[in-house]
Amino acid sequence: MDGYAVGVDLGGSHVTALLVEPNGRAVRRTSSLIYERHFEDVVNTMTGVIRELIGTMEICAGGVGSPGSIDPRDGVVRYSPNFGWFNAPLGTALRNRLNLPTYVANDARSATLGEYRYGSGHGTRDFALLTLGTGIGGGLVVAGQLVHGAAFAAGEIGHHAIRPTDGFICGCGNRGCFEAQASATGLRRHAFAASRIIPGQHDDIGRSVA
Q: Rounded mean pLDDT of 20-46?
């Protein structure tokens, strides 16, 4: 890398951007909540976060990790259950707005590659990573190579049904997916169900107590 770069994590509830030195060290960070999930709204949020981060600095490139099935060759989000996107040209949209070479890949596989090169997977040949957040994702390195898969979904275990008859409805439309049951979102739903509080009702209770 010949200059500073920007790394962006697009999560289910927020966008986080890092300014990275040529040696790979992160030197600055900023983030924003995602209030709207429509493609253009999310792109606007991402663009604002990146511009706030870099200011007037010269940046050589940007990299984005996004949830969903993504073709890393063109940065198109083929399908993202978290956002309900189909064939969303995320890479092109960011390149056009920022005038910056921007590469987009699945967030879990991006994390897998980073952990393989710089973290707990360093020095291994075969490596697997599980990510847990708003959703659940995974990535695989086999014989030293990151695996994308024919449908760009290698290692994507979040949408395997583990409670297909009585589980929560998942963002993908199926019932009882691993992600729907065990992600941060799923755990929150379990907590609400156990306490018999309807999601959102805790805000009303808090206001009443206040």
A: 95
